From TrEMBL:
Top-level lineage group: Bacteria
Keyword Lyase: yes
Record protein name field: 2-Methylisocitrate lyase, PEP mutase family
Molecular-function GO terms, alphabetical: lyase activity
UniProtKB keywords: Lyase
């Protein structure tokens, strides 16, 4: 299988849907994507029912990385928040995510506890401190195929100039992919791509601060990766609300039976075919 690093050098945009549990991951895994993105927001919401505000621990998240990466074949880009602490924590986190099977880890320059990138009140650590984190992350990995994605959240509170200054410093420190979070216009996105001479990641959050662009538009600007972290769980939430409202209203699922995933196909997706074959082989 082509590694994510190899895919970075090939033409075209890498499109990575957000996955947040094994149902979303298994569905996306069979659809031919070049990468999947383990969204911190969605993973914390689905696993703990909590906001993405630094409440999940390293242990919570590395366990989810191991489950998602172990149950899929597509390279997984995994949200590693701030590295869950200082430099030693970053070292431990990078080693843990790589051993758990991720293809890349995303680290950000927010203060701990962090907040979701398109929400207010984000504060960033000094640039020099994040440069040290990136250098530690690069040294900690076992394989160069394990990518370090460096994210800066400076744009919202400190402006685009500061965000670009940080992104360039993180590139110099050895980050493989740069992620300037929440630019607010297409022109800002164009300036980011014109300034940074390393692969760039665009964060497509419906209802967020950044314009949602087409694949062709993102490629024209110069982005290499586009993640869609919230699209899956927003779609699932909308579908579940409609479904449960119907059941509550009617006391039955008859009206929506045609809209549901086939139970047989869903069972196959979850691996029941092997169970059926095993039972048949070992039947008395």
């Amino acid at each position: 299988m082509t590694s994510l690093r190899e895919r970075l050098t090939a033409p075209g945009l890498i499109v990575a849907p957000g996955v947040f549990d094994m149902i979303s991951a298994k569905i996306a895994d069979g659809m031919g994507f070049d990468a999947l993105y383990m969204t911190g927001y969605g993973t914390v919401a689905s696993h703990l029912g909590l906001p993405d505000a630094g409440l999940a621990s390293y242990t919570d998240m590395v366990t989810r990385v191991r489950t998602l990466a172990g149950g899929t074949a597509t390279p997984l880009i995994a949200d590693g928040d701030t590295g869950y602490g200082g430099l030693l924590n970053v070292d431990f986190t990078v080693k843990g995510y790589e051993a758990a099977g991720a293809a890349a880890i995303q680290l950000e320059d927010q203060e701990f506890p962090k907040k979701c990138g398109h929400t207010p009140g984000r504060r960033v650590i000094p640039m020099a401190d994040m440069v040290k984190k990136i250098k530690v992350a690069v040294q900690a990995r076992e394989s160069d195929d394990f990518l370090i994605v460096a994210r800066t959240d400076a744009r919202t509170a400190h402006g685009l100039d500061e965000a670009l200054r940080r992104a360039e410093a993180y590139a110099e420190a050895g980050a493989d992919v740069l992620f300037v979070e929440s630019p607010e216009t297409v022109e800002e996105m164009r300036r980011i791509c014109a300034t940074i001479d390393k692969p760039l990641l665009a964060n497509m959050v419906e209802g967020g601060r950044t314009p949602i662009l087409s694949k062709a538009e993102l490629e024209e600007l110069g982005y290499k990766i586009a993640i869609f972290p919230g699209t899956g769980f927003l779609a699932a939430g909308a579908a579940l609300r409609r479904t449960y409202e119907t059941i509550r209203r009617d006391g039955s699922s008859q009206a929506i039976a045609g809209d549901l995933y086939s139970f047989t196909e869903f069972s196959k997706l979850m691996g029941f075919e092997r169970v059926w074959a095993f039972d048949a082989e070992h039947a008395d």
